[in-house]
Amino acid sequence: MKMKNKISLIISLIFGIAAISKSQSIPIQVINSAGGGGSVGATGVEVYYNIGETVISTASDGTTTVTQGFLQPDIVGQFGLTASPLFNGVTCLDKTDGVIKINASVSGLLPQSSYTYAYYWNPPSLCPSNDCDKVNGLSPGTYSVLVVSTCTATSAVDSVSIQNIIILDSSEPCVLEVFNGMTPNGDGLNDFFYIKNIDQYPDNVVDIYNRWGQQLAHIKGYNNIDKKWDGTIKETKTLAATGTYFYVIDLGKGSSKPLKGWLELLNK
Q: What contacts 89, CB < 8 A, 6 or more positions away?
């Protein structure tokens, strides 16, 4: 339904979805959210929106989408094109893993297969081919996209522009994820001891021991690039034998007690 030159109060209630936390089942609601809509200047584009927080996360079970925060605008073109963004901010400090997904469709009697879509992102380097409805690996910042639909049956073209999509930063340090399998055979797969997000702790120290407590590696500032354990023994630079080894990860100043665990090395 289109609205022109008027602002309405929208009270939205999303129900029928349960958010499960431990043993509790909590219905998700958005209530008393002010909003409105109308045409944007002389562009012919109409915007409908809820006023509230920026969306910071989105989840879907395949039939229903739940958004943490308030719904973003649906941007409506002159000939029935509707586009809306779903997006996530970066997951932790200094990460570049923000995501934007554009949902676009055209109303009318023709099936959706009758339309093709192009996406002109700003900055253009996000998708030089202009065929990406989703971009990821994003740094915190502000992005925009022009969505263009073309009807293959009639050659009619419609477009909408979505501005000010904000990917939020995070002040939370990243959680370490230790990959405890190694096959240092030079095939580019699991060739070294990989510790995800270790670069977030530049003062770290990683020690590797064999089952008799002998230290095989002592690495300061482990970063998975030029400072990493490739399975060699520090004194001889020879490759360690197949077996189970043990790691101690000290994250540095102000961190909790060292992390300890095991890793399996397959030398073939």
A: 56, 57, 98, 140, 167, 168, 169, 170
